[in-house]
Write a structure and sequence with these properties.
alpha+beta, 2 domains, 10 helices, globular
C-alpha cells in the first residue's frame, strides 16, 4: 500500500533510500513500514530529530535476513541524514502486550544491532503506532491487531518516572553541584528532561501520546504558573532557540521535574 501522506523532505529522502536498499537486498520479508515518534506526532525538527520506525516482518528473521538489514542500515548511515532508528518484528508480536523489553533486530543512533535488548519495545510505542503511526507501506495500523493496553501503559510510565527519570534528576543535580560560579548548562538537557517528564505526565492524565512540544504545552495549561517560565525556556530550547542556559534555569527545571513526577505518581 502506498502512503497518501507527505513527510518533511529529509524524511522522504531517507525513507526512499531505505526502500531502494531493501529492494536491492531482496527483502520481501519486510511487509510493512510505519513511522512513529516525532514524525508521527508532528514534532520532527530537521537537523535535530531522528526518524523512528516500526517494521513488520512476515516471519521471524534469519541470520541471513539480519545480515541484509545490517547492510541496509550501514548504507543509510554512510549516506548521512537523520538517523533511521527502529525495530523489526512480526505482526504476531504486535498482538501481544510488551510486558518487558525484547531482544530483536533494531537500529539505534544509526547502528544496526542484533542479540541486544531493544528498549523501544514498550507500551508507549505500541500506543503511538496504534493511534498515530504513519504508514509508509503495508496495511494501516488499524488492521494490525496491536495490543494497545491502557493498564500496561500506565504501569510502564509510572515505572519510567520512578526509575529512569528520578535517577536522571539525581545525576543532573550532582553535575550542577560540581559547576563553578558563572558556568552555564546544556539547553538540550533542559528540554530533554523537562519536556520528557511533561509528556509522560500528560499520558498519565489523558492516556494520550504527545510529542515533547505537546507535553510542554499541556504542562503550561495543567501546572501552576510558578513553573511556566522554565517550561517556556524548555520549549524554546527544544525549538533550537538557544544552546546554553544559566545554571539557575536548569536547577528550576529539575525542581519542576520532581514536582511533575510527584503529581503524576500520587496515589
Amino acid at each position: 500500500m502506498s502512503r497518501a501522506v507527505s513527510f518533511p523532505n529529509s524524511v522522504d529522502s531517507v525513507v526512499a533510500d531505505y526502500r531502494r536498499r531493501l529492494d536491492a537486498e531482496g527483502m520481501p520479508v519486510v511487509r510493512g513500514l510505519y513511522l512513529v515518534g516525532s514524525v508521527a506526532l508532528d514534532d520532527f525538527r530537521p537537523g535535530a530529530s531522528d526518524i523512528d520506525f516500526v517494521a513488520m516482518l512476515d516471519r521471524e528473521p534469519t541470520a541471513r535476513d539480519c545480515a541484509a538489514l545490517e547492510r541496509v542500515h550501514v548504507g543509510l548511515a554512510e549516506a548521512g541524514g537523520p538517523c533511521f532508528d527502529g525495530f523489526y518484528l512480526t505482526v504476531e508480536a504486535l498482538g501481544r502486550v510488551p510486558a518487558q523489553y525484547a531482544v530483536l533486530p533494531f537500529s539505534l543512533d544509526g547502528r544496526f544491532r542484533t542479540g541486544e535488548v531493544c528498549r523501544e519495545v514498550n507500551p508507549v510505542v505500541w500506543r503511538c503506532l496504534s493511534r498515530h503511526g504513519r504508514t509508509v507501506f503495508g496495511p494501516p495500523p488499524s488492521e494490525l491487531g496491536i495490543a494497545d493496553d491502557s493498564d500496561a501503559l500506565r504501569t510502564y510510565q509510572v515505572k519510567n518516572l520512578r526509575e529512569y527519570w528520578l535517577s536522571w534528576i539525581t545525576q543532573a543535580e550532582a553535575g550542577l553541584a560540581a559547576k563553578a560560579p558563572g558556568e552555564d548548562a546544556n539547553a538540550e538537557a533542559l528540554a530533554w528532561g523537562v519536556l520528557g517528564v511533561a509528556r509522560i505526565a500528560n499520558a498519565l492524565e489523558t492516556e494520550g501520546i504527545v510529542s515533547k512540544d505537546g507535553g510542554g504545552r499541556h504542562a503550561l495549561a495543567a501546572h501552576p504558573a510558578r513553573w511556566h517560565p522554565v517550561l517556556r525556556e524548555a520549549l524554546a530550547a527544544h525549538a533550537g532557540a538557544m544552546r546554553r542556559v544559566p545554571v539557575e534555569v536548569m536547577r528550576e527545571g529539575l525542581a519542576y521535574m520532581r514536582f511533575a513526577i510527584a503529581e503524576a505518581t500520587a496515589g
